[in-house]
Design goal:
Chain lengths: ~600, ~450, ~260
């Protein structure tokens, strides 16, 4: 696949010729960098698929039932190119599924976690390289299940990404594949998280205390904890639903239940149980999808503000706080689900409180750029846009946390706006910034900065045009997941606004072509980057670009934290973690505040 | 930087060119009923002629047309047909494709993209058979019947109510359903005409011309098909509405006692041999009697599948017998084999498009959900004329002036029983021990 | 290009606020509220909108100001070598914490009114969601549900009395649905096997949309209903008419209205 061939070109300096060697080095590699790149290429491929699915959704919302250009001809020819309603439900279900389980989670933990953790802590590889390799190859059954489900009778999963039973129990075999795929993603993440925890705890370079770790690593560490504790619940729930579908159990089937005139089921279960189990994982998963991005943004902002990170320890504590509180707020997805309303109150308080660590992080990022000497490079722009967009995404969360307001805005476009501000404008933008930032380390070459800025500008403008008006749509009560909302008199006047959103969405996806070309062009023809093109402090920048097998060509010894930019102790405006302190001064302890 | 810009420009131009090549999808067209075409081995030339004649009489899904004889309102059809859009003054178009096509299909063949996941399957309008109506079993439904279904939906199925839409929209849809139905019936008549009246050879693909423009006899025959076979039934429907005799009508404000007594009589009939309701609806009215029958639509599919199985078996036998054949005999068998294989291939192609046949499951009367409506009036009609196209027989007269199995009074008793059965405990003992096996067989 | 990026980031608060200012003029705002407690929910929304709006402007403003002032190319000062401030951390932990807790507690009464304090009135109707229709069951002349004289409607039209407390029991026949009345600001998921209650008091008569707000299958979008609020007299009259129609024995009443 493209993943593998692209990887081979990049690393052809380590090439020895025999076929067996080729496979063990580039395909079934145990090197964390190759695995990270495998994750990166796979997820970027799925990012494209997910984006296309989103455009299908947007087409239908802007011009319902009108023939979709190009793809309509291929996919829905017999119906004159119009998206049928069950195809629409499939589109948004698979858009969410692909984006969450095959793009955001694996690109953060899989691609960046793998690539960066050993490099940033000064290790030569992960603690369990084979397990690491398996964590990538367990994604492939998931890729095949999700991808293949489009081609089975009845199509891919179409019960929403939350697969609420009993609807999901009535769905076709695509839904079974969906659940199996989800389990494989879970196994993959689980193997990854065990590995990350062990590596970060055990394999840090001499002098690398926990409070000298870069924020990226802290975020990855806490993400791994979240995964390790929350995933078993989802995996168990997935198996329960599989057994309801295949073995005739009734965990989620109420007594005497039937749908579409099926035979009545014995049942005795409870559909709400699934929602509890699902959100017990999927709410922490929301933080799995944002914490690593926060970590990477902290690193980028400190580097390009040329200033130490403001409040390193509060930043660490707030990440831990988010993770801890993240386990007791899942009920806010279920305020109107029929759950006991008394529980709604406690979940509301917990949910309100989780806004607190997020606020602390925003203030600290602002504190970091205050008084700095900001370099407006492409990664910095993406990182600052993360902060700017995360403010919107965080504040809109308060509306939803307030239970009475949630009665009205639940399952409307207000929710869609909120999580796209966090996941796309937040995480995806941070990921793009991170790609620009660590690209030199990954491939030894720089990406084009001017085109990067054009890409940033277009993406930034269009994403706000797409997602900001959705708040207003939500205020009108415009519901999610409707193939034709203009049935309802209440929403008929919203069609022009939706058309505007869709046009901007098409432009936004089109402007990603700049990124694609820049990315592949730079792999082959970008200017060579030295070891430390950004003059950053953390350990990965001390290794060669790209690092060879074993990462470092010297034994890194760490003398200080990663954010000593502009330190008065040295003449240059950065102070690498491995740089020994001047003779006359003792090594500084980890930075206090 | 320069090389980069060049690469980017080349890519953008290339993608734009590729997109321009694909363009917009072609408008959908009516497709012929291949089950009938293949079953009757209609040759391609005649298929084309049938499609042309239908096109001339009924137009296309985007541009519908109706001959004055049909009595259809073209203005309404235009509102229902075509792609979905609203013109500048707010006039609506494409209502059928917006509301109906994903289940009932562009052709009205009940095979839209969602059909597969529905139970029961959406109705195939092309045979002109509708289940819930106030006319005699073999007749077409009246306008009111269609409107009632659109208004109330069909509880217990995926057919929703359209009562919340403007009456004009619903009228247009109703007209379009009639249009699709007439078109389908006409297609059926044409296929039968070709089969019965024209000479053709399915193997060589040659045959008589079917060209009403040139052939006066054919023109007349087709005209009479339209007016006599198709339109007459629809025109007569509004006059053929069954009206129960006023003298037998139970009064609307009967005391509860009287209803209970009537229901008790109905119960006796339900379990009796004369009405024999329990054969299908089961000894407890749970719909658990005979469950292995099919409705007409599934029966047709099943017949087609069985014929195909028989055909492939006959190919096998033929090949076995060919082993011992020689000379002209062998040559004849070879030609035969070739023709049969061609037909088998065509049949298999059609089967891939068909919805798998499903058993007609008798209604569970204890749910209190009645697809054709739950008013006494509705249930009376189900009991009286049965449900067209399904194993549910009528107990009333089959046509005007005929004699039914039950008297109207008895039918009203059954109506009262059916209405009360949802409130009757299922454990209530039967009249007498019932031997289900004897009844079902 | 100097300052350009500050201006780009400045567009976020400017356009963001502008969107909320302009939207009402295009009628893209809350749907017309006809309920008693809807006002409370709208007020809470506006309260949080103002509060978060101010925080939004201040934080985004700070971001823009810092990018403007501390641009590496124009800022002559060396970077401030600071690892943070303990006082500031305490301030910006306690202030938001107090605010957030206040918001949470401030909401509780409205939540309890909407979902916990079920009024002690007889059930007006039972609404059942099924794929893809809302079916309604009214108690018949005997005033009790689940008796043979119940009035059952399957045409997706719900009639309810205005200006009095209405108590609905809502159910699902097959999968999850959500009974959403945008003009009443009420929403409740219905779960097969469970009974949910919903209560409200409409202040106006008229026809409004019922929206299904929980994915219930391919036809989710077409699960449209209409609720008609009318005066008690009209409602009783309507009930009587439907009850008669349901027991109709003659063809005169089979015509659709």
């Amino acid at each position: 696949m493209s993943t593998i061939t692209a990887g081979t070109h990049v690393h052809d300096h380590a090439h020895h010729g025999s076929v067996g060697h080729f496979f063990s080095t580039y395909v079934f590699s145990r090197d964390h960098k190759i695995i990270g790149l495998q994750f990166l290429f796979s997820t970027l491929f799925w990012f494209f698929i997910g984006g296309m699915l989103a455009l299908g959704v947007r087409w239908q919302l802007a011009w319902p039932w009108s023939p979709m250009p190009i793809l309509g001809n291929l996919l829905y020819k017999t119906e004159g190119g119009q998206i049928a309603p069950e195809a629409y439900t499939m589109l948004f279900t698979m858009h969410a599924t692909v984006m969450i389980f095959m793009v955001i989670i694996p690109i953060l933990a899989g691609a960046f976690g793998n690539f960066l953790i050993p490099l940033m802590i000064g290790a030569e590889d992960m603690a369990f390289p084979t397990l690491n390799m398996l964590s990538y190859w367990f994604m492939w059954p998931a890729f095949l299940c999700f991808g293949g489900s489009f081609f089975v009778a009845g199509g891919a999963g179409s019960s929403g990404w939350t697969v609420y039973p009993p609807l999901s129990l009535t769905a076709g075999s695509g839904q079974t594949l969906w659940l199996i795929g989800l389990t494989c993603v879970g196994v993959s993440s689980m193997m990854g998280s065990v590995n990350y925890l062990t590596t970060i705890i055990q394999m840090r370079a001499p002098g690398m205390t926990m409070f000298r770790l870069p924020m990226t690593i802290w975020a990855m560490f806490i993400t791994a904890v979240l995964q390790a504790f929350a995933l078993p619940v989802l995996t168990a729930a997935g198996f329960m639903q599989l057994s309801d579908r295949l073995l005739g159990t009734g965990f989620f089937i109420p007594e005497g239940w039937s749908a579409v005139n099926s035979v009545r089921a014995a049942g005795g279960g409870q559909p709400l149980l699934w929602q509890h189990l699902f959100w017990f994982y999927s709410h922490p998963a929301v933080y799995i999808m944002i914490l690593p991005a926060m970590g990477m943004v902290s690193d980028m902002i400190a580097c390009f503000a040329r200033k130490p990170l403001f409040g390193y320890k509060p930043m660490v504590y707030s990440i831990a706080g988010i993770a801890g509180l993240g386990f007791i707020v899942w009920g806010h997805h279920m305020f109107v689900s029929g759950m006991n309303p008394v529980l709604g109150m406690t979940f509301m308080v917990a949910t309100m409180l989780i806004a607190l660590p997020s606020a602390i992080k925003v203030f600290n990022w602002l504190g970091t750029i205050w008084g700095g000497k900001i370099q407006f490079t492409t990664p910095m722009l993406f990182a600052m846009s993360f902060v700017s967009m995360f403010i919107i995404g965080g504040l809109s969360g308060i509306f939803m946390a307030a239970t009475p307001i949630d009665i009205f805005i639940h399952d409307t476009y207000f929710i869609v706006a909120h999580f796209h501000y966090v996941l796309f404008s937040g995480t995806a933008m941070a990921v793009m910034g991170a790609i620009y930032f660590w690209f030199p380390k990954m491939f030894g070459r720089m990406m084009n900065d001017s085109w990067g800025k054009v890409h940033f500008l277009l993406t930034f403008v269009f994403l706000n045009c797409v997602f900001f008006p959705m708040h207003i749509l939500g205020m009108v009560g415009f519901p999610r997941r409707l193939a034709d909302p203009y049935h309802y008199e209440t929403f008929r006047h919203l069609q022009p606004l939706n058309q505007f959103i869709s046009i901007c969405a098409i432009c936004m996806v089109a402007s990603q072509s700049i990124f694609v070309v820049n990315f592949f062009y730079s792999i082959f023809f970008g200017p060579k980057a030295g070891r430390n093109p950004w003059h950053a402090n953390s350990l990965e920048w001390m290794a060669p670009s790209p690092p060879g097998h074993g990462n470092f060509d010297f034994q890194p010894v760490v003398y200080r934290g990663p954010y000593e930019y502009g330190s008065p102790e040295v003449d240059i405006d950065y102070y690498p973690q491995t740089m020994p302190p001047p003779e006359n001064k003792p090594p500084q302890p980890a930075p206090a505040h | 930087m320069k090389l980069f810009s060049t690469t980017y420009c080349v890519m953008v131009v290339g993608v734009a060119a590729a997109l321009a090549g694909c363009g917009r999808p072609a408008p959908p067209t009516f497709r012929l009923d291949m089950t009938k075409i293949v079953a009757n081995q209609i040759i391609p030339k005649h298929q084309q002629a049938i499609a042309d004649i239908l096109g001339a009489m009924f137009g296309t899904p985007d541009e519908p047309y109706a001959l004055p004889e049909t009595g259809l309102d073209v203005r309404k059809l235009k509102m229902a047909a075509g792609p979905v859009w609203s013109d500048q003054v707010g006039g609506k178009h494409g209502l059928y494709r917006r509301q109906c096509a994903h289940c009932h299909g562009i052709n009205g063949d009940g095979r839209g993209p969602t059909a597969m996941i529905l139970n029961p399957y959406p109705r195939d309008y092309r045979s002109g058979v509708f289940k819930f109506k106030t006319t005699y079993n073999p007749n077409q439904p009246s306008d009111d019947d269609l409107r009632t279904i659109l208004h109330n939906g069909i509880p217990g199925t995926a057919m929703p109510s359209f009562a919340v839409y403007p009456p004009d929209d619903v009228d247009a849809l109703q007209e379009y359903v009639k249009y699709l139905s007439m078109r389908g019936q006409m297609e059926n008549s044409l296929i039968n005409y070709v089969r019965d009246e024209l000479n053709f050879n399915p193997v060589t693909g040659e045959g008589d011309d079917l060209d009403p423009a040139k052939n006066e006899d054919q023109r007349k025959a087709i005209k009479s098909m339209l007016t006599d076979d198709v339109v007459a039934g629809w025109k007569a429907a509004n006059e053929n509405v069954i009206r129960p005799e006023d003298s037998k009508l139970p009064s609307a404000d009967r005391p509860a006692k009287e209803i209970a007594a009537s229901a008790e009589k109905g119960r006796e009939l339900f379990y009796g041999t004369k009405a024999n309701c329990l054969k299908c609806h089961g000894p407890t009215a749970l719909g658990d009697g005979q469950q292995d029958d099919y409705d007409n639509w599934s029966k047709a599919t099943k017949k087609f599948e069985d014929e195909t199985t028989a055909l492939s078996a006959s190919i096998k036998t033929l090949m076995e017998s060919m082993a011992s054949q020689q000379g002209d005999e062998l040559e004849a068998s070879r030609n035969d084999l070739k023709a049969k294989r061609k037909e088998l291939a065509e049949r298999e192609e059609v089967i891939a498009q068909l919805l798998p046949p499903r058993n007609a499951i008798p209604r569970n009367l204890r749910e209190g959900v009645f697809r054709g409506g739950r008013r006494p009036w509705d249930i009376f009609h189900r009991v009286n004329q049965g449900i067209a196209g399904t194993p549910m027989p009528g107990t009333g007269p089959a046509s005007a002036g005929a004699q039914g199995t039950l008297s109207e009074e008895e039918m009203w008793n059954i109506v009262d029983y059916v209405r009360s059965v949802a409130f009757e405990p299922a454990s209530r003992p039967q009249m007498k021990p019932i031997e289900m096996d004897a009844i079902v067989k | 290009m100097n300052r350009f990026w500050s201006l780009v980031f400045l567009m976020v608060p400017v356009c963001g606020v502008a969107t909320f200012v302009v939207a009402p003029y295009f009628q893209i705002w809350f749907p017309h509220d006809i309920s008693e407690h809807g006002r409370v929910i709208d007020q809470l929304f506006m309260f949080i909108l103002w509060l978060t709006g101010i925080i939004f402007i201040v934080t985004e403003g700070a971001l823009v100001y810092f990018t403007w002032k501390y641009d590496g190319r124009t800022n002559p000062e060396p970077a401030k070598f600071s690892h943070g401030s303990h006082t500031l951390e305490v301030v910006w932990t306690i202030l938001p914490a107090v605010t957030l807790l206040f918001i949470a507690i401030y909401q509780m009464n409205a939540w309890a009114d909407a979902k916990m304090r079920k009024p002690n009135v007889p059930i007006t109707a039972e609404v059942t969601g099924r794929q893809f229709n809302w079916d309604v069951r009214y108690p018949g002349p005997d005033g009790e549900l689940y008796t043979p004289d119940d009035i059952i409607r399957t045409d997706g039209q719900v009639h309810l009395p205005a200006n009095e407390e209405v108590l609905l029991v809502i159910k699902a026949a097959d999968v999850l649905h959500s009974f959403f009345l945008p003009n009443i600001r009420m929403k409740q998921d219905v779960v097969p096997g469970m009974e949910q209650y919903m209560w409200f008091k409409a202040r106006e008569t008229g026809e409004f949309d019922i929206v299904c707000a929980e994915l219930c299958g391919w036809g989710h979008y077409k699960m449209k209903g209409r609720v008609t609020f009318e005066s008690r007299e009209d409602f009783d009259k309507w009930l009587k008419q439907k009850s008669d129609e349901q027991n109709a024995m003659t063809i005169a009443q089979t015509k659709a209205e």
